[in-house]
Write a structure and sequence with these properties.
alpha+beta; three-stranded antiparallel sheet; 19% strand; PA2G4/ARX1; Peptidase M24 domain-containing protein; Pept_M24_MAP; Creatinase/aminopeptidase-like
């Protein structure tokens, strides 16, 4: 194994503080981007505008990092901002010409991702576009999805298939 291969192997290991820092930085950016996107989710807001704001924020924040390093470090959007409404399960990132808007009572699923040097952080969030508590079928669906995610998470352990 050449020294370049050894260096590459070491860089990808979580025992490297540099790798952990890149993951943490990507996670901080993606969480702030999520807060921004949620704040933009209001009745009559165009979905394409919300998605563009999320992606722009990620590009801007990652663009401010690692500017003065010798080796060019790739960074930016790892997964485009998606705002999926009601029956659209996920991954709705509309074209610029799309006129779809949010409406009061919509259930919105937001997902987006950021990377620094290929180290990716992604986030997903469900948001109800209404004041007051969510009730009825919408509440049941959100609770069921949350329970399914919790069950799946508990099954993820070393050695499991």
């Amino acid at each position: 194994m050449s020294s370049d291969d050894e260096r590459e192997e070491r860089e990808l290991d979580l025992t490297s503080s540099e790798v952990v820092t890149k993951y943490k930085s990507a996670a901080e950016i993606v969480n702030k981007a999520l807060q921004l996107v949620v704040s933009e989710c209001k009745p009559k807001a165009k979905i394409v505008d919300i998605c563009e704001k999320g992606d722009s924020f990620i590009r801007e924040q990652t663009g401010n990092m690692y500017k003065n390093v010798k080796k060019k470090i790739e960074r930016g959007v790892a997964f485009p901002t998606c705002v999926s409404v009601n029956n659209t399960v996920c991954h709705f990132s509309p074209l610029a010409s799309d006129e779809s808007c949010l409406e009061e009572g919509d259930i919105v699923k937001i997902d987006l991702g950021c990377h620094i040097d290929g180290f990716i952080a992604v986030v997903g969030h469900t948001h109800a576009l209404q004041s007051g508590p969510v009730t009825g079928r919408a509440a049941d669906v959100i609770a069921a999805a949350n329970t399914a995610a919790e069950v799946a998470l508990r099954l993820v352990r070393p050695g499991k298939k």
